[in-house]
């Protein structure tokens, strides 16, 4: 059966990510190390740590994913693939979506799955693991898809990494807030999980549309 | 054998140990087989090791 | 045969391949045998009066912790050999040792955590020893990540070696953090960082402090896992040499294709 | 099929690099873009492919798919090859074949890819990661795109860079075949491609000298581009 | 009077940093935005925030400074200056030291001075400001000088930024620990400030030696 | 002053690019390195400057400062210019003058820098950030280093790239002046520099053909470098 260009591209990007290896490893390593630094900075008070653990895990995940976004379009731009992808007959929006999806699959999901392990370092409550991973899995697509905008905008800028973070972090605020709210909703009595969780899902869905649209617009300008 | 109240922790640590070391060994063995196969493929195709290349080359060149 | 000539003989990768090919099965077999014997002795020894049955974890935890440090020392020595003596196998050795050392570090962390829950009531505390071992783990990760992200192999090898040598300062830190350091003639007195983890009881200037019924099984296990470490390391080095041959052959293949084209008359 | 450009002007930075250029090319024809460095050859090709916005004028592909843009009906070969160094030669071509919709089924795709590799004399290297290929071999692999998906219009920007003589002849053969199948080629080049008959569109400097038959052609070079970003030029462009 | 090559280079690097502007701005912006995200992730409990504020400020500063390190040698390498600096007759160790010092002056100090302002966002105790800035000023040289090692090692690596952080963060652990300890030593009764502070200063002094040495070794390899 | 290289071998990747090369050059002499792409010209210059480790052999500068390495007694002009685009032309040169220890006092430095700018016909651009200079102007500014600090040995790697004819002549004049002051120049180049007399050291391909006087010279090319990383070459290197 014929594979659509979208899936062809998705498969290629995943293959590349797995084969070149380092990218996933570096993001995971950074996540790990940032989490490990936190207790050193905040002091080894285990009660305190376990209380703020979900928030810290979320923010560190955000940073790791964000800082790994830089190369989403960069290699394709350098080796000339990007322009060929652009005029291949597939809308650039779909191209951007495929690349963002590949990033989510190869970075967002591994980071989300690593989070509970790192939870141990922060003495995270065992009962929180399920909700934590669930909200992260639902929330991280927004990182990859909104991040695609930043990656496209900073494609030819000096100081890509930090600049990208600076541009895109404000867009993540809603995701962060509702992600944390959903977790505390599930853990604390008298609060509810579903409303925040649904908003979180809606945000991710929205970013699935907004991200590729804006990223494609930015890419068109970059190719000029 | 009675492992007392903490049997789970003891067994879990031995299990993790066994799994990690087995995985490492398996990966090394697989990698060895894989590289050897690539090497055999390449040699079968006529490419020869550097130290042998010269002689082979000289014979084929007019 | 003097040491010198062994190293010289081993310097030749082909030589190393045939030698290691002969040794490896025996080494691996011996390692497994010693480990089985050591664990058997350990499991038939009486439980600890304080730690009860959980003392069984010691027989794997402590060797892992030692091998974590030994592995790093091996990486560092190999790196030194690469940078200073340009020994042809030094980089192969450093590259092969890193993932194995990282695996034992991970095992020390995991078994330590699993031991910590019953003993200290928590999987993890941020005390000096645990933190420094975690940093050692990160250092291993960093070595592997740096190597994988530089395309040019000789460049990657040398840079990784520099990092490995910089990282050596972590080894004394692992020791000092728990035991403190006092150098009387310098008037230097660094206190131990507050810690839950017990200090060394085997390698002490006043002799081992642990009971013989635990000490001997522990030493057997340590020996067995060390043999295993070297067997794995040897296998890793063999793989790496093969990988480099594959690469050389691929480059040769490309060259040959180009040479054949150059020889062929233009259409 | 016929490609026409009418009164094209294209701006780069703040000067008009192409200014009021018109030309046409028909099926089976190759139009060579020549001119000194900086004359605007790359600029023109990228504008036709749709990367650069036109300042004025328009380009049309008569007899093409009117639903799709010209770029989507073209192969564009630029300075970079669009090759992933960690994929093997065959994987690279298979990707482009599938992405560009070269063949519907997997087996067809494989046939086509291996045919192309044979033709480009890369068959021996099909399983080797592209990182190991030399510059010339990479270039040929990049040209493989032309063979694994059908597009009527080929836009080639210095396609012979880093190719040796034999490979240039190979490329000429591939181009000839495309032309005889009713294709259309625009190629920017500094060196002769070795094609039987080719019309030349000279950009910059002296007005166009076209050796081919010129009956079906509107070729007019009103711009004055020497490739130096001189004040005069940009003023000229602006006053038009 | 003749200026030594060291100061000539230092002055040039500072001039460049001020003139190109963006670098300092981006690091400060990143610091600001990471701190601003924290209350969103940790919840608005002001007591809690003010308690962990010094640690958070330290860690965020570490990350901002670290991620801005990437370009320490990069532009000089690209435009060919680095090799000229290397054979100019000045030891490469001094070159690395000058560049690290310039980084500290243009990034470490501004970040340390911004910290109290950001402390407001975290409800930092007013009495802590002095100690906070003092420990940061004394601790940040280690960031620039140890970071120089990472910048030199990753000069030609793919994925510079994250990788650099991964390599260098473990080396910062002692600085972080003693920096925080000094602050809590000053704020809490029954603990003392000076011992930790002196160790912190010693660590910085040590990094002044180790950093340039190792960075120069790495640079020599990079130039091959 | 005399630069000698004895039995040099230099490895790049895993092949010997330079293999058993010996040569010598005396004060007042320019030695041109020529040869096809990839022959090892850049490699040789970088090895002499001290960037690349020698596989075997040695280089010596007789009559130089024995305390300092050859690189520290040389100007190296590579492909990149060592120019900061946000500094002005004058600031760029002033930096190099001060860093390389060209002049002790500030006024001396300024004189020297402005003299160099005049000589390089950049005086009109002295206050303009280097970002706005054209490629040729940037190159000239880079060459300004040669004038603002004294070094006996000049290692020039394709110094004429992007220079127009007048600037090439200017450079030739500067080189001649350096030679007549007792300097020593090694220059890798594809095109003639327009110098009166120059000995040539040909790397790769056919053996060296040296037009200059050859009495004082040991020139021997035992290596066999075609510029292609072929299997034969690396074998040759290893069996030696
Ligand atoms: C993740 C947590 C842990 C880590 C990273 C860790 C790390 C280490 C290290 C590095 C050593 C070697 C020390 C040396 O030889 O200098 C060691 C030894 C040892 N550890 Fe742990 N450990 C952990 C948890 C535990 C726990 C919970 C216990 C038991 C309560 C324990 C008991 C021991 C013992 C008995 C030794 C042998 C000491 C000796 O005799 O030299 N460890 N550990
Ligand atoms: N991104 C850009 N911004 C501003 N000016 C540009 C840009 N790209 C190209 N130019 C200018 O446009 C002009 C035409 O460039 P173009 O690349 O089309 O030339 P060309 O004919 O392809 O030259 P070559 O033979 O060197 O490939 C040049 O003067 C160049 O300086
Ligand atoms: N970093 C490197 N690693 C491996 N091989 C290299 C490296 N740099 C150069 N080479 C190889 O060394 C050989 C000599 O290169 P070099 O740059 O010295 O040639 P050159 O004579 O200066 O050529 P050109 O005329 O193109 O400048 C080439 O075959 C090149 O591929
Ligand atoms: Mg062009
Ligand atoms: Mg060269």
Protein described:
The complex is a heterohexamer, with 2 copies of chain A (224 residues), 1 copy of chain B (62 residues), 1 copy of chain C (267 residues) and 2 copies of chain D (240 residues). Helix content of chain A is 82%, strand content 0%. Chain A contains 9 helices and no strands. Chain A has helices at residues 5-20, 22-42, 46-67, 74-78, 81-86, 92-121, 129-153, 160-187, 194-223. Chain A is globular, with a radius of gyration of 18 Å. Chain A starts with a helix and ends with a helix. The mean pLDDT of chain A is 88. Chain B is mostly helical and 62 residues long. Chain C has 267 residues and is mainly α. In chain C, helix 2 packs antiparallel against helix 8 (212-263). Chain C is elongated and about 80 Å long. In chain C, strands 1-2 form a two-stranded antiparallel sheet. Chain C has one domain (26-239): Four Helix Bundle (Hemerythrin (Met), subunit A) (Up-down Bundle). Chain C starts with a helix and ends with a helix. Chain D folds into 2 domains: 1-64 and 152-240, P-loop containing nucleotide triphosphate hydrolases (Rossmann fold), CATH 3.40.50.300; 82-151, no CATH class. Chain D has helices spanning 41-49, 89-99, 106-119, 135-143, 145-148, 165-180, 231-239; strands at residues 2-12, 15-26, 30-34, 56-62, 74-77, 153-157, 184-188, 199-202, 220-221. In chain D, helix 2 (89-99) packs across helix 3 (106-119). Helix content of chain D is 30%, strand content 23%. Chain D has 240 residues and is of the alpha/beta class. Chain D has a 5-stranded parallel β-sheet, with helices on both faces. A 4-stranded antiparallel β-sheet of chain D has the order 4-1-2-9. The longest helix of chain D is centred in the C-terminal third of the chain and has 16 residues, at 165-180. Chain B binds chain F through residues 50-51, 53-54, 57, and chain F through 231-232, 234-236, 238. Bound molecules: protoporphyrin IX containing FE (HEM), adenosine-5'-triphosphate (2 copies) and magnesium ion (2 copies).
């Amino acid at each position: 059966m014929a594979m659509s260009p979208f899936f062809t591209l998705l498969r290629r990007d995943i293959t590349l990510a797995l084969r070149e290896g380092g990218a996933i490893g570096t993001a995971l390593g950074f996540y790990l190390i940032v989490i490990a630094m936190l207790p050193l900075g905040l002091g080894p008070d285990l009660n305190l740590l376990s209380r703020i653990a979900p928030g810290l895990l979320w923010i560190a995940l955000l940073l790791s994913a964000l800082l790994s976004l830089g190369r989403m379009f960069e290699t394709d731009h350098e080796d000339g693939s990007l322009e060929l992808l652009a005029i291949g007959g597939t809308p650039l929006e779909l191209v951007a979506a495929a690349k963002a999806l590949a990033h989510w699959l190869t970075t967002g999901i591994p980071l989300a799955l690593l989070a509970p392990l790192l939870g141990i370092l922060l003495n995270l409550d065992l009962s929180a693991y399920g909700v934590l991973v669930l909200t992260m899995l639902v929330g991280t697509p927004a990182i990859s898809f909104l991040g695609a905008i930043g990656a496209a905008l900073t494609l030819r800028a000096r100081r890509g990494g930090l600049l990208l973070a600076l541009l895109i972090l404000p867009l993540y605020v809603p995701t962060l807030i509702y992600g944390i709210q959903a977790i505390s909703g599930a853990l604390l009595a008298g609060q509810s999980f579903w409303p925040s969780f649904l908003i979180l899902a809606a945000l991710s869905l929205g970013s699935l549309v907004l991200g590729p649209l804006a990223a494609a617009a930015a890419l068109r300008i970059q190719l000029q | 054998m009675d492992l007392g109240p903490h049997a789970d922790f003891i067994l879990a640590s031995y299990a993790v140990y066994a799994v990690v070391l087995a995985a490492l060994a398996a990966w090394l063995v697989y990698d060895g087989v894989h590289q050897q196969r690539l090497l055999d493929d390449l040699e079968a195709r006529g490419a020869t090791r550097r130290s042998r290349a010269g002689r082979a080359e000289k014979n084929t060149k007019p | 045969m003097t040491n010198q000539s062994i190293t010289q003989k081993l310097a030749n990768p082909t030589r190393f391949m045939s030698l290691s090919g002969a040794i490896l099965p025996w080494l691996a077999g011996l390692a497994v045998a010693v480990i089985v014997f050591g664990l058997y002795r350990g499991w038939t020894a009486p439980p600890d009066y304080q730690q009860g049955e959980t003392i069984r974890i010691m027989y794997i935890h402590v060797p892992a912790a030692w091998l974590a440090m030994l592995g790093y020392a091996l990486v560092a020595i190999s790196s030194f050999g690469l940078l200073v003596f340009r020994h042809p196998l030094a980089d192969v050795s450093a590259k092969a040792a890193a993932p194995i050392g990282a695996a034992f570090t991970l095992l020390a962390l995991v078994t330590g955590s699993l031991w910590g829950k019953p003993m200290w009531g928590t999987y993890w505390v941020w005390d000096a020893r645990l933190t420094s071992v975690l940093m050692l783990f990160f250092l291993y990760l960093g070595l592997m990540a740096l190597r994988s992200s530089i395309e040019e192999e000789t460049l990657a090898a040398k840079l990784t070696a520099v990092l490995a040598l910089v990282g050596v300062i972590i080894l004394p830190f692992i020791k000092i953090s728990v035991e403190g350091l006092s150098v009387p003639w310098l008037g230097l007195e660094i206190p131990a960082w507050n810690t839950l983890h017990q200090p060394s009881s085997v390698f002490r200037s006043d002799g081992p402090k642990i009971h013989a019924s635990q000490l001997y099984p522990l030493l057997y296990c340590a020996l067995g896992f060390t043999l295993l470490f070297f067997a794995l390391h040897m296998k890793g080095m063999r793989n790496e040499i093969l990988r480099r041959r594959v690469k050389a052959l691929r480059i040769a293949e490309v060259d040959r294709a180009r040479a054949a084209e150059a020889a062929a008359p233009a259409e | 099929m016929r490609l026409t450009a009418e009164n094209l002007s294209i701006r780069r930075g703040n000067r008009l690099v192409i200014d009021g250029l018109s030309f046409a090319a028909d099926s089976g024809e190759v139009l060579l873009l020549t001119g000194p460095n900086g004359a605007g050859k790359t600029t023109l090709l990228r504008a036709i492919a749709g990367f650069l916005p036109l300042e004025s004028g328009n380009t049309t592909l008569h007899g093409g798919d009117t639903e799709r843009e010209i770029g989507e009906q073209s192969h564009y070969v630029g300075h970079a090859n669009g090759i992933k160094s960690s994929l093997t030669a065959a994987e690279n071509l298979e990707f482009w074949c599938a992405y560009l919709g070269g063949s519907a089924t997997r087996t067809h795709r494989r046939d086509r890819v291996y045919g192309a590799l044979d033709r480009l004399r890369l068959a021996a290297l099909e399983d080797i990661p592209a990182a190991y290929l030399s510059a010339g071999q990479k270039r040929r692999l990049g040209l493989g795109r032309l063979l694994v998906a059908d597009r009527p219009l080929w836009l080639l920007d210095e396609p012979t860079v880093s190719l040796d003589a034999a490979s240039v002849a190979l490329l000429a053969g591939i181009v000839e075949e495309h032309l005889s199948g009713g294709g259309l080629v625009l190629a920017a080049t500094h060196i002769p491609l070795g094609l039987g008959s080719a019309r030349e569109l000279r950009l910059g400097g002296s007005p166009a000298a076209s050796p081919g038959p010129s009956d079906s052609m509107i070729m007019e070079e009103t711009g004055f581009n020497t490739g130096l970003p001189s004040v005069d030029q940009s003023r000229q462009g602006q006053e038009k």
